[in-house]
Sequence to fold (608 residues):
Amino acid sequence: MDVPLGECVPPSTPFAVSVSLPTWDDNVGYEKGEQRVLDAMVSGYPRFFIAKPIQALAEHVKDRFALPKETAMLFPSLACAERCTGFIFDQAKKQQKDSVTYGLLAHGQVRVVQYVVEPINRKAAAVDAMKNKLDSPVTLYCVMFPEAVFPLAKQYWQHTGNGISARLASYCLHIAQANGKYEREARPRCSLKAAGAAARNVAAAAAAAVAANGKRHAQTDCAPAQESTTEADAYLEERFGRNFDPIYAGEMKQALRRRIADALARPEKKLDTQVTAEVKPDDVYLLATGMSAIFYAHQALLGMRQGKSVCFGFPYTDTLKILEKFGPGAYFLGCGEEEDYAELERILERHAQGDEEPILSIFTECPSNPLLKTADMPRLRALADKYGTAIVVDETIGSFPNVDVLDWADVVVSSLTKVFSGDSNVMGGSLVLNPALPLYQRLRASVGEVFEDLMWSEDAVFLERNSRDFMKRVPRINDNALAVAELLQASAKVSCVRYPKFVTPENYARIMRPTSDAGYGGLLSVEFVGGESASRAFYDHLRCCKGPSLGTNFTLVSPYTILAHFAELDWAAQFGVHSDLVRISVGLEPREELLALFRTALDAIPDH
Fold:
């Protein structure tokens, strides 16, 4: 499939969480901020690319509340907004931009505005085909700050995943459109000057979001251009057995918690007397994004006591940023090899015996992204027990049907955006507490202090719909990915295939479920004998979707290091994450068709 530069992946998908970057140079151009790439983009990964409807709503908020040279960032709760302001002040003292410090910010220069978006007339607001979908007010918390510190606010947005969702922004814009229509009809009978001005401004912002998307996909990642579009979408989704009405969002969230708890069930452990408890739906917390799950896990641990954490193995980029920037800091053991276990024990011992606080937690991915390494979990657990440290495992890459880390992890986090959803059109995350380990009660109390249910109702509905068959999809993806990995492994043009079957296989075997359907997951990374020129040729000649994200029902490829570490390529390389690495997330396509795509791309690499 050839998807033009900047369009949604997959094409014509409302609220898509990926964007097409079809050539190697397009990825480099995106990172360099080339105008030809930025102008083409109608979508992007939501924590990196602020979606069009959110941009439109932020513009309205600026028109309404901003002082000169101020801008805004929107959050769904006061706590999120206040953390953002605290992050801006904290990082302003530590970071520089163009050799100019941010440290002279006065307290009043960063402030929070509470803004209620509410229908003027609820009957008029119920413009869709399915009940009173737009009859409830929404409270937004808008952080207002000088334009010069936008990069700091954007870091908070990206690292934590705590900003409002695109569907929530579209909901607010849709209310504004309904308000504008009602105001125009009611103007001869009453005066609504203040409310009318607000409605006109938001409606104009909604129209701007549509225009910004261009003619090709004017309704793809922005508020609907016409009311009839929303009516049709809602009618099709809700009347023909796909989506439930958003009024049932509470039930959908409970269904999601139950689905995750069921996926974590361990029937083979029923007779094991050492297993004292099974995960229940109440042990599962739903978050707006995968990074939110990691953020709140770290916040809950800090609520128990202060202390540095350890990031073991090379993680997804924002995990390390959360550990380093929020709280006392972190140690990074990025290779995850034998010498790192010894160093970990030295760090734990030094903190246990010295003046510093004992180590708070060990964060690791099983397996890791993008190197697909798996840590020796029994070894980490033994160290954690010896020194009173918690273990947090991100199992996103392995996925619930394939891996079981409950013998070793106090907390299991996952990005539900990925294979759990599969459709690349909604964000979500989960945080699961392990009731079988000693820290459970303390963690449960601490999570209860910081957790907020911030998953927007429509996002919950879509996530529930998408995930109904995820337990059936994963084995098919496993089989396809294994076939692709073995094809690449057999090629003389390939120098390295990173895949759990080939990388730290003995460690992966310990966490792999003892079921016939369990496998190695859908992610692999590849490097070529010919270096970057070979990677370019391979990537540019692949006829599949290409862009950020993973775990999609369709195959999705990216030059991962270019996108995730462009500003720190040399730093990443020292941990084995090389700039010519190509990451492949394998989908559900017919296997022979899939293999043919990769054979063609391999053939495009010049012989040496």
Remarks:
- The chain has a mean pLDDT of 88.
- Residues 96 and 484 are 44 Å apart (CA to CA).
